Task: structure prediction
Amino acid sequence: MAIGASATSLTQSSPHRPDPAQPSKGFRIKKAANIAFVTLTVFFTVLTAISITFVVLGSIIFEAVAILSISSTIAGIGTIALCILGFLKAWEKITPHLPTCLRVRANYIQSLVCGFFTALVLTVIWPFDWTKKNIKPEKIDPNKPLLIAIHGFMGSSNNWIYHMKRLREAGHTNLATINLGNWFLSINDYVEKLHLMIVDYVKKAPLKDGQKLRIQFLCHSMGGLVARRYNELYHTIDGVEVEDIITLGTPLDGTWLAVFGRGSKAAEEMMPGSPFVKGLQSKAALEEKTRSYHLWSKSDWIIPMKSASQGGGKENMTKTDELHATGHVSFLLSDTAADKTIRYLKDVETLSRRHIEV
Result:
């Protein structure tokens, strides 16, 4: 399949053009927040009524004091959560109407708040290994691409809990994640682990004679560099066809904040101007088969906008989109990032079918 021929059609859309309306069925972070807001409002109202009742009865019933103390504690926690959700809802309504200079700063603040809660969620689910939910090689549909999600620096497979759920809801079944392991290894070490995983899939997948396993990568941060390097080193050796590399806040041109990862070979390789980064940029400038789709945000404090949206790729092989008020970690629990990813995958599938028919 001539992948490059279909990539040109994808790049015709503006990076700032809003996506068509997405189906509202299934779980959404924003919908869950709205439900939580309403639930906490009702919960707080009921607890307030109960507390007032026990204050009145407190002089008559001694046990009411203990019950009042417990309900007050619960009400306090609920109030804090309600205030935070209420603040975010009000912020969302007000921000679009602010002058540009204030809106940019407001987006930064929103990205920090959302990033904090995203990091909190990822910390809670840290012990869970999401690779156990990978599709078995024997059960792969050989006529569809295998989508492998690659986490970023200091991440793990469970970072993809939300995106995997959304992709399954959208009908994708050939899904897998990977744990890259030790933070102090080099990106080439991570690539080797990815290579071994893909080789296992190629060996066991129900492919016909001469049929190649089609691969799509969904990557956060450093994961995009791992995918690019794999495509450079192994896709021919492994006998696979890497169709798409989708990146969420990937330092395609490096990031100066990598200096804080001192002691890590991978962090050193992510420095702007490093031989590793320059090598990937040179390869991207020659790429004729694999499409790239880069999602970036001006509110990303970790990866500069230019680094996450460029990377040296050819214009006809690259599509970019901006996310507003989205911090670096927030990409992982972003409704918009998931919507755009699913829309892109649907578009490339449609283009691939048209090419086959032709």
The radius of gyration is 23 Å.
